[in-house]
């Protein structure tokens, strides 16, 4: 019988981990790969029925490769601690893993951002490549953030959704975007990309247009406008940080 493990990367997510693990109970095993949590995450994960594995952390791609190398199941479904697998998605996953003609599956997500379910601006349908044949998947560890699985084989798209409780407050949103933006700037510099002063104007404008118009952020009204403007601002910050690092070299 085809085996399936739900793998959850975690650090200090005690408020989320229990419900996340329970939503993954349809799998043959749920494993939480924890990076030195000190808020009770590990105990809560075990109480909900998961096995916990202490995990070294360099970047997110490395952590996912560590999980793939540790597990033995045929298929792995990666679920973030602030995500939930719906019963409908669980049933669809169980169905598609019986056919290994497709080696990796993209899953759409509903993103909750400060109490609002997003309809656009890059947060819907927000497909994530999360379900994969373990022996035919790996991650490029040079990507420190927004990691992407590399699949040896065909890929497909599921219909049912993950639920993502993305940001509960604007404070949390800004803290995470600051971190992501610095990761992105570092990754680009390591890849040999260079920032120019003109990028401080052109790239934020492009990002706003992409978020609000191309990705239909206008469907979310003022919420979509605010998020599109904020993401344009963080795009500007990314190039500002790159310029500062380039001046040091």
List keywords for this structure.
7 helices; 2 domains; 249 residues; Spore Coat Polysaccharide Biosynthesis Protein SpsA, Chain A; seven-stranded mixed beta sheet; four-stranded mixed beta sheet; 13 strands
List the helices and strands and how they pair.
Elements (H helix, E strand, L loop, with lengths): L3 E7 L3 H10 L5 E6 L6 H8 L2 E4 L5 H11 L4 E4 L4 E3 L1 H10 L5 E6 L1 E5 L2 E2 L10 E6 L3 E3 L9 E3 L2 E4 L4 E6 L2 H21 L8 H16 L6 H28 L1
Parallel strand pairs: 1-2, 1-4, 2-3, 6-12, 7-13
Antiparallel strand pairs: 4-9, 5-13, 6-9, 7-8, 10-11
Helix pairs in contact: 1-2, 5-7, 6-7
Distance between the termini: 56 Å
- CATH fold assignment of the largest domain: Spore Coat Polysaccharide Biosynthesis Protein SpsA, Chain A
| Mean pLDDT across every amino acid position | 95
Mind telling me which CATH architecture of the largest domain this is? Alpha-Beta Complex
* Radius of gyration from CA coordinates: 19 Å
**Number of spatially distinct domains:** 2
Supply the CATH class of the largest domain. Alpha Beta
């Amino acid at each position: 019988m085809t085996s399936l493990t739900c793998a959850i990367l975690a650090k200090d997510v005690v408020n989320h981990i229990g419900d996340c693990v329970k939503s993954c109970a349809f799998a043959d095993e749920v494993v939480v790969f924890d990076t030195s949590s000190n808020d009770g995450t590990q105990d809560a994960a075990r109480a909900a029925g998961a096995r916990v594995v202490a995990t070294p952390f360099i970047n997110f791609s490395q952590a996912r490769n560590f999980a793939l190398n540790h597990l033995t199941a045929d298929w792995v479904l990666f679920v973030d601690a602030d995500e939930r697998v719906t019963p409908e998605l669980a049933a669809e996953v169980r169905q598609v893993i019986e056919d290994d003609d497709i080696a990796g599956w993209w899953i759409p997500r509903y993103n909750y951002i400060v109490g609002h379910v997003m309809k656009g601006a890059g947060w819907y349908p927000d497909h994530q490549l999360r379900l994969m044949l373990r022996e035919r998947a790996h991650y490029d560890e040079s990507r420190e953030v927004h990691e992407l699985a590399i699949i040896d084989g065909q890929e497909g798209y599921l219909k049912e959704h993950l639920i993502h409780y993305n940001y509960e407050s604007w404070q949390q949103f800004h803290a995470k975007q600051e971190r992501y933006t610095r990761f992105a700037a570092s990754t680009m510099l390591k890849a040999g990309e260079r920032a120019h002063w003109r990028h401080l104007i052109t790239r934020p404008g492009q990002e706003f247009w992409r978020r609000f118009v191309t990705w239909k952020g206008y469907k979310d009204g003022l919420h979509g406008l605010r998020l599109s403007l904020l993401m344009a601002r963080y795009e500007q910050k990314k190039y500002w940080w790159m310029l500062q690092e380039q001046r040091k070299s």
